[in-house]
Amino acid sequence: MDRPGLAEFLRRRRESLQPEDVGLPRGQRRRTAGLRREEVATLCHISTDYYSRLERERGPHPSEQMIASIAQGLHLSLDERDHLFRLAGHNPPPRGAAGEHVSPGLLRIFDRLADTPAEIVTELGETLRQNALGVALCGDLTRYTGPARSVGYRWFTDPEWRALYHPDDHPLHARVFASGLRRIVTLRGPKSYAAHLQNLLLESNEEFREVWNSHEIGVTYQNVKRFVHPQVGDLELACQVLLDPEQSHSLLVYTAVPGSESYEKLELLAVIGSQYETVSGRSSS
């Protein structure tokens, strides 16, 4: 572990970032060059004391999980992330489809989306980031572990998850998820995690077997997704997708037509969403 190099790199990266770069308010009387240590600690989900000790060449040897959290909080590029891991004495994680490090460009866009539901997902529909309105709409999707992290796996195994979507659209959702999983299995190969999910579902779920055996490719949604929210009722939302091909991540942004009933319900959800339990049965806060 290169403590002096790690401390200098962290300090330089912190000083190069401005609050607006990471979705924070600038506030008044800011004298610090770049971000404050406590702001970085909040972004990295660690204590200010722990982060400060790293910048001062002190403290314990940070784990790989801790370094990954710091790299994401500082909005590092993949090259910068790998450099940070090596400074901390760890091998960098893999890049590509298996990686969960969100690119700084995608994060900058995501950080500016406060008035509409948004999330960043892997190619298997595993939610990596979700804004407050996204949580109010769908529940905290980052809390899932194991195969249930994949939205397609949840669709076939979790009845409560289905309740979030209009029942008339359930057959289409099943076809979309099966078609998408088949594409990824073909792309990543029989030893991939996508193939593992395929095998789990084939072994345990009759509905998935039936849809899978149809061998459909390229099934997509129509113009809107129809949600059934437990507090505000039916919503019709368009889903716009921005793809980061290097990491196979997608930014999903849900919007409603201005002036429509769904638009008004989204505005209401922004106000009351955090006060209620979501479809998952957990608090959205």
- Outline the low-pLDDT stretches: 276-285
Separation of the first and last Cα atoms: 37 Å
> What is the CATH architecture term of the largest domain?
2-Layer Sandwich
Give the overall form: globular
Instruction: Please report the first level of CATH classification, the CATH class of the largest domain.
Output: Alpha Beta
Oligomer: single chain
Sequence-ordered SSE layout with sheet pairings:
Elements: H1 3-16, H2 37-44, H3 48-55, H4 64-73, H5 78-87, H6 104-111, E1 118-121, E2 127-130, H7 132-138, H8 151-157, H9 159-162, H10 170-188, H11 193-204, H12 206-212, E3 225-229, E4 233-244, E5 249-255, H13 261-272
Detailed description of the structure:
This is Helix-turn-helix domain-containing protein. Residues 28-81 form the HTH cro/C1-type domain. It contains 13 helices and five strands. With 285 residues, it is of the alpha+beta class. Residues 276-285 have low confidence and may be disordered. Strands 2-1-5-4-3 form a five-stranded antiparallel beta sheet. The protein has two domains: 3-91, Orthogonal Bundle (434 Repressor (Amino-terminal Domain)); 104-275, Beta-Lactamase, CATH 3.30.450.180.
